[in-house]
Design brief:
The chain has 67 residues and is mainly alpha-helical. It has 2 helices and no strands.
Amino acid sequence: MGVGLGLALGLVAVGASVMTALYSYNYAILDAQGGETAGLLANSGVAFGVAMLAAGLALVAIHAYDG
């Protein structure tokens, strides 16, 4: 159970990391064009938080259920 749960949470962490990079890239493009960027900063922050939380929980799951 620990490996499967750790893998699932690891995939969530990787997906959230990709979303953080995507939002940050879009922020840089829109900021250079003078567009509105407040929503992208908030989304990037939330995605970063999800990535950190999921990565931490993945490590806990692997170690807690290690037989």
